[in-house]
Amino acid sequence: MSQKLRVKSIKLETFGHETEDEEKVIKALLNVVPEKLRNIVNLTMLIVKGHFNNKIKVFKIKVENPLANEALDYIVKSLSRDDKEFIRNTIDMRFNRGVLYMRFNKQKAYLGSLVLTDYSDDIIKTEIVFNPRAKDKELIAQWANRMFNTNNRVKQCSNM
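User: That's the sequence. What structure does it adopt?
Assistant: Structure tokens below.
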């Protein structure tokens, strides 16, 4: 297998409803990246209308290489053993066309903890984009086994 997975970018997105404190929503989103990157990432906001004409703010961050590898290392180190195991066991449902999808609990992120959640609307959507856009399921499974290995310390994510 000559193809290697390399992180191209990490995209983070969450919603802020009118009832939420905007600063707290931004803090939750920024808590997904390492502290030293929080002041240099580009945070964007878009205002959209909800189903009942309510104002919803969509906050987005995109971290690109070379900082994307550092951000991914931080995310992996922040996950619990159970969440790492869960990702490894559900990698086939989370990985599509070179993108790894994860959803984090927004409230927990605000409090400084990254916790996976698949059954909530109050989330931080995370997309880890790889280059090249890997489609080989065996390569993806090997990468996930190394990256989310619960028996060893976190591996550096730059290559496989």
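The helical segments are 22-30, 67-78, 81-89, 91-94, 106-110, 137-147.
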